Amino acid sequence: MALPQLLPSPSSSYLTHHRLNPHTLSFSPSNFNSISLPHRRRHHRNHTSSLRCSSSSFSEKHENTPSPNSNDIVELPLFPLPLVLFPGAILPLQIFEYRYRIMMHTLLQTDLRFGVIYTDATSGTADVGCVGEVVKHERLVDDRFFIICKGQERFRVTKVVRTKPYLVAEVVWLEDRPSGNGEEDLEGLASEVESHMKDVIRLSNRLNGKPEKEAGDLRRNLFPTPFSFFVGSTFEGAPREQQALLELEDTMVRLKREKETLRNTLNYLSAASAVKDVFPSSSSSSS
């Protein structure tokens, strides 16, 4: 599932647009270029990857499994991509570049885990990424691989160990810290975010001539933190905003930011819907 695009993706040439989503809802909204979102970026090193990949979609459920100790420092092979992987999300990739085929051969003999880290030509490579664990793979002709990986814990790069044949870095694990104001209601905020998502879905369906059906249960029993990651994973087309959400270490702050983004998107869709009501013939002829 993906909400309307919030920004045109600068790296759309990397995307194959074949999605895996076990929870396909009864809508398929078109992409809208609505608002320019603020973004905060940190830059790291180099290496933009030239592989094809699809946008991430959320898996059936991201369990609250114990994360590694945040003080642990481990070495992790890194895969720079023009997209953001969130914990619990599913990411299908076709790997054909030689250095990453080498990496895959190594991963298949070890623990099947590597770091997905966002990169683009403007901002460089981020410091914070998400572990992708290979859950299914197929070796194709010419030693290419098709893999499906699932987002696990987040990490921050502390030191680059080597850059050839592929990037390897020392990382520390990231976990959300308790919110500063313990009196605020995380569950209530998560419910508000879910409600905004449903409104966005409903208006998106309406603008695309689809039935305005109730989206149903979007949280699917997820606790606020994994739910906030799920919401971030739906903001396809706005990778820098997704990266900013991934880097936050406070669930309350992340949900508040997502609520504001959804509210802005909803305002845009409401305006577009009003224009369609006033000029129905011109809307249909332009499409």
From TrEMBL:
Q: Where is this region: Disordered?
A: 39-69
Question: Which residue windows are coiled coil?
Answer: 238-272
Which intervals carry biased composition (Low complexity)? 49-58
Its keywords, alphabetically, are: Coiled coil
Q: Provide the Lon N-terminal domain boundaries.
A: 73-266
Stored SUPFAM superfamilies: PUA domain-like
The cross-references to InterPro entries, in alphabetical order and at most eight, read: Lon_prtase_N (IPR003111), Lon_prtase_N_sf (IPR046336), PUA-like_sf (IPR015947)
Q: Does the keyword Ubl conjugation apply?
A: no
> What name has this protein been given in UniProt?
Lon N-terminal domain-containing protein
Q: What is the lineage of its organism?
A: Eukaryota, Viridiplantae, Streptophyta, Embryophyta, Tracheophyta
